[in-house]
Amino acid sequence: MIRELTRQGVSIIYISHRLEELMAIGDVITILRDGCFQAEAKVSDIDVPWIVREMLGSEPMSNFLPPDRQFGAPVLEAEHITCVSPNGNTLVNDVSFNVRAGEIVGIYGLMGAGRTELFECLLGSQRNYLGKLWLDSKPLPTRLPTAERIRMGMSLVPEDRKRAGIFPISSVASNLTIASLWRRLAGGIAIAEQAEREAVTQTVGNLAIKISSPEVAISALSGGNQQKVVIGRSLLTNPRLLLLDEPSRGIDVGAKAEVFRMMVQLSQQGIAIVFSTSDLKEIMAVADRILVMSGGKLTADLPRADAEEAALVKASAQGF
Questions:
Q1: 8 A C-beta contact, residue 141 and residue 158
Q2: Domain locations in the chain as residue ranges
Q3: Which residues pair with 106 in a beta bridge?
Q4: The model's pTM
Q5: Could you report the per-residue pLDDT of 37-52, keeping only the tens digit for each?
Q6: Residue 229 and residue 203: Cα distance in Å, rounded?
Q7: What is the pLDDT of residues 123-172, one digit of tens each?
Q8: Cα 320 from chain centroid (whole Å)
Q9: Is residue 156 a contact partner of residue 179, using CB atoms and an 8 Å limit?
Q10: Looking at the DSSP assignment, which residues form a beta bridge with residue 92?
Q11: Does residue 159 sit in helix, strand or coil?
Q12: CATH code for 69-153+239-320?
């Protein structure tokens, strides 16, 4: 259809991450990076490696991981996780991996790769999945509700903070404690208010959340501080496994660095962390091990020391 339109004199702007597709369709390739123009060339003069080089750029890369990282026993084990949508599309396709105590595993992939859907299967918000899961060697039945998985030690910081992560008209304190009130029930029937206040004060201090008062509405905070509140809510459930879906989305560079340092500190306390991102620089900066997803499939599983950026980009374009 595109070729027929161009024969009729119609100009086409085609936006895609699928590199071979761009080479097959395009006459001229323009590369944007971080919202800025990076490069432009005729398709006849370039190849896929050129596109990859221009996409990656040459900015210095920070490394938030200290040397000689040590990991414990597997906290999460996933075998053959498969999820099909109601209309028959395979969202997650036979994915198997594990995460050890104290390890940060990054899942790199483009939009539609299946990363968010995989997290939904792990937490149980997506109930129609196949495969097997274990948390600290305990099996997680497919129908086990999300609340029970949280009680067992699993927690998720969602991708869309504004839609699924915060209660915008509620206070910072309420947003922090809403998922862990069951831990502070007095006599099993009422919330122990003193214990709740102490938990809020400690979390605000530990995560350096910048607020005038815990009673201020969370909507008044910056994006970075809102993200810290959502992470703090997860930490108050005492997780063994912390899932972070695009944890740096919508926050500035300084806040990103604070979140990454926080992730490393939490891992040093023995928490297993899995985070997803479509930003290659981020995943190279903070992941001990890198998984790549493409079209719902796991296309790479590499220790960070063995991971090359160009190979990760190519793996992320497979399966489409």
A1: no
A2: 2-56, 69-153+239-320, 160-237
A3: 275, 290
A4: 0.78
A5: 989 999 999 988 888 7
A6: 9
A7: 998 888 999 999 999 999 998 999 999 999 999 988 887 788 888 889 99
A8: 20
A9: no
A10: 83
A11: coil
A12: 3.40.50.300
